[in-house]
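**Protein record**
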Amino acid sequence: MTISEALLPEFDQEMGHTRRTLDRLPDDKLGWKPHEKSMTMGQLAVHIASMLDWAVTTLQQDSFDYAPEGAPPYQPPVANSRNEVLAMFDKGLAASRAALAAVSDEQMGKPWSLLAGGKTIFTMPRSAVLRSMIMNHNVHHRAQLGVYLRLNDIPVPAIYGPSADEAGA
């Protein structure tokens, strides 16, 4: 079994949970945030959805510089509705899943670096970047979005078992 074959079932499960969570996003609360230092609900949802594009970058390039010298820094995309967030997520999911299914074990073992202004922030094997900076990072922010939903009395979807909102369903 290849590394990608081992990761794909977990990837599919987690991305299914993520899509169900994003599907609860209310258009009228995109600007809501629980604290001044927090992202808005819309920014958080876009961050989650656009993370899948990073998987493609991780699997197909040797590095990414989010603030390259002499060029504009990375700017996250913007979405103005739940449907736009879901379309962004679905597009990224298809591309990242295809990239993951196609990557060889040799490529997964090669180092990948995150850079800022040409300076290395970290270097890890692609498989570790995919697991930590894409999948685990996605789960972390999905849980954060679940808290945002709860604070706005929006039913939280079941993830690893029933949620308080779906316990009897």
The chain has one domain: 3-151. The domain at 3-151 is CATH 1.20.120.450 (Four Helix Bundle (Hemerythrin (Met), subunit A)).
